[in-house]
Design brief:
The complex is a heterodimer of chains A (about 200) and B (about 260).
Chain A: H1 31-35, H2 60-79, E1 84-92, H3 99-110, E2 119-125, E3 128-130, E4 137-139, E5 157-160, E6 164-171
Parallel strand pairs in A: 1-2
Antiparallel strand pairs in A: 1-6, 3-4, 3-5
Helix pairs in contact in A: 2-3
Chain B: E1 3-10, H1 13-28, E2 32-37, H2 44-57, E3 62-68, H3 73-79, E4 85-89, H4 98-105, E5 115-119, E6 136-142, H5 149-152, H6 154-158, E7 162-166, H7 171-174, H8 178-188, E8 193-196, H9 207-216, H10 252-259
Parallel strand pairs in B: 2-5, 2-6, 3-4, 3-5, 6-7, 7-8
Helix pairs in contact in B: 2-3
């Protein structure tokens, strides 16, 4: 038996502990979140907790919208673009994201950023699975059926349906697109010529 | 006419990268994370409290971190086991992310910890999208919640390495149909193990701890169809090893084992 460790109650263990100092380059990773301050509804979408604090994200579609804005802003900075007309997302049927909720959050997340006024185009991707033994492929539906409808075996894997990707960014007129693939390279690509992922900040 | 750039970036790439880094860092020190997901009120805390007591009795170094919108009630309950416990108050946020978890471990996680149990915010929607660097993702459902819960929340149940049924002591009283529940689990996550437990009667006591220790030691872990294998998505991975989708990767514990647990 190990020695007991008494619990020391502390209300200080919040989601975001106090930060030591902002990064020297000023590119704070929650800059977009900061601009949301005061723009979120008086009550969060899930009806709980407080809102209005910097970086507060009451539901995960808001977290996702902020991640989209942050990544597009990074790509824009990398290429010198100054405006974004639209963003196209690919959202799999099993991604666990509600497109309508995401659209609502996206508008809020774009406010005051390079993306202000940008349109969100959500391309929904049906979920499909493949059977190993009989090589059958099927649309899994919702709720998903992940056992083969022909032979009953567990699916060997999903062919699609878990995507949550930024597929394309439509830059505003007159902007120089960041160095990356152009539509002429074809959808999906083969791994070559993709836009470089901006450097990630440390966790 | 607008010009277009195909980015092909995973929206949750940052969380996936953080989760991967956290998993690798913890593996180096011999710690495995167990991520517990369920609806509010399904009995996560009661089950965990019992498992923590067993771990302490057996001399297994475990700790627990519990997240709630408000109150420290769960931490107070879990701390009765005598193991180190930390409460995270989310102030309305509906899920934990890998970066947040990592920040809360800094300066707190005891060096000899073998298992870190994370009791996620009670919610079967949002937490399912975020890999926390866990080696074992466990989804719990009580017998009162309906046999079709796995169908209503397919992402959570579909990405689980282990499913735990709680409150079986009242299964008969509420007419719980175990066969129907198992069939629904099988539909969204074929092959995943389902454990039956009751914190009140002790049914299934220690099973969660055993499964967690096995996963932490690099033993085989169920590979959910929904969690892998990685799909092609044609973007530059930037040197990191994230998966196409969010959520835990199949075989994460095996990979962790390959990295060495120090055990």
């Amino acid at each position: 038996m190990r020695a007991a460790v008494p619990y020391r109650p502390s209300a200080l263990y919040r989601v975001r502990p106090p930060r030591a100092a902002p990064p020297p380059n000023g590119a704070h990773r929650t800059a977009a979140a900061a601009r949301l301050n005061g723009r979120v509804p008086a009550r969060p979408f899930n009806g709980a907790g407080r809102t209005g604090r910097t970086g507060e994200r009451p539901m995960h579609e808001m977290s996702i919208a902020l991640a989209v804005v942050e990544q597009v802003e990074q790509a824009a900075r990398a290429g010198g673009a100054t405006g974004v007309a639209g963003v196209r997302l690919r959202i799999g049927e099993l991604a666990g994201v509600v497109p309508d909720a995401l659209s609502f959050c996206f508008e809020l997340a774009c406010a005051g950023t390079l993306l202000e006024g940008a349109e969100l185009e959500a391309e929904q991707v049906p979920a499909r699975a493949r059977c190993g033994p009989c090589a059958d492929e099927w649309a899994v539906g919702m709720p998903p059926q992940l056992c083969c409808p022909r032979c009953g075996t567990a699916a060997a894997g999903l062919l699609s349906g878990r995507e949550l990707h930024i597929a394309a960014v439509h830059w505003a007129d007159g902007d120089v697109p960041p160095h990356g693939r152009t539509p002429g390279d074809g959808p999906g690509g083969t791994g070559g010529g993709t836009a470089p992922v901006p450097p990630r900040e440390e966790c | 006419m607008c010009r277009v750039t195909d980015l092909q970036q995973a929206v949750l790439a940052k969380n996936d990268a953080c989760a991967h880094a956290l998993r690798a860092n913890l593996a180096q020190r011999g710690t495995a994370v167990v991520n517990l997901l369920s609806s509010p009120g399904s009995g996560k805390t009661a089950l965990l409290e019992r498992e923590l007591v067993l771990a302490r009795e057996r001399g297994v170094p475990v700790v627990a971190l519990t997240a709630d919108l408000a109150t420290e009630n769960d931490a107070v309950r879990l701390a009765r086991s005598g193991v180190p416990v930390k409460q995270v108050l989310t102030d309305g946020l509906c899920h934990l992310e890998a970066g947040m978890l990592g920040s809360h471990l800094t300066g707190w996680l005891p060096g000899d910890t073998r298992l870190l149990f994370v009791e996620n915010v009670g919610n079967l929607v949002c937490p399912a999208s975020y890999d926390l660097g866990e080696s074992l993702r466990v989804v719990l459902a009580s017998v009162t919640e309906g046999e079709d819960k796995p169908l209503k929340y397919p992402t959570a149940f579909g990405t689980a390495h282990l499913v735990v049924v709680t409150k079986t002591d009242i299964a008969a009283a509420v007419g719980f149909d175990e066969d129907a529940f198992r069939a629904h689990v099988e539909q969204v996550n074929p092959g995943v193990e389902v454990l039956l437990t009751s914190a009140r009667t002790g049914e299934g006591a220690g099973l969660l701890l055993e499964r967690a220790l096995a996963a932490g030691d690099g033993g085989p872990v169920h590979a959910p169809v929904m969690a892998g294998p990685p799909q092609h998505h044609g973007h530059d991975h930037g040197g990191h090893d994230h998966h196409d989708h969010h959520g835990p990767v199949a075989g994460a514990a095996s990979r962790r084992g390959a990295e060495g647990t120090g055990e």
